[in-house]
Amino acid sequence: MIVLFGISVIVFLMIRLIPGDAVAIMLGANTEVTPERIAAMRGALGLDRPLLEQYWVWLSHALRGDFVSRFGPDAR
């Protein structure tokens, strides 16, 4: 059980430590990208939450087999 927990922490951190800003990559090099739009996208992805909360949400979805990213107000 401890090994599985350790592996889940490592996988989560590897995803978060990939170089580059995921939101900037998703929005692309569009000149219409504003700081407000970046903040909105971070909120939609949950990247504005504390790291521990992000891990808990990621782990709870992974344990249910829910690996699909959801966007918008109905995101779980």
Which percent range describes the beta-strand content? under 5%
Principal-axis shape equals elongated
Helix content: 55-70%
Radius of gyration: 14 Å
Mean pLDDT rating: 82
Catalogue the unreliable spans. Answer: none
User: N-to-C SSE series?
Assistant: HHHH
Q: How many beta-strand segments?
A: 0
Number of helices: 4
Explain this structure.
The protein has 76 residues and is mainly α. It is 59% helix and 0% strand. It is elongated, with a radius of gyration of 14 Å. The mean pLDDT is 82.
Which SSEs are present, and which pair or pack?
Blueprint: H1 2-16, H2 22-27, H3 35-45, H4 51-63
Q: Which descriptors apply to this entry?
A:
4 helices; mainly alpha; 76 residues
Short description:
With 76 residues, the chain is mainly alpha-helical.
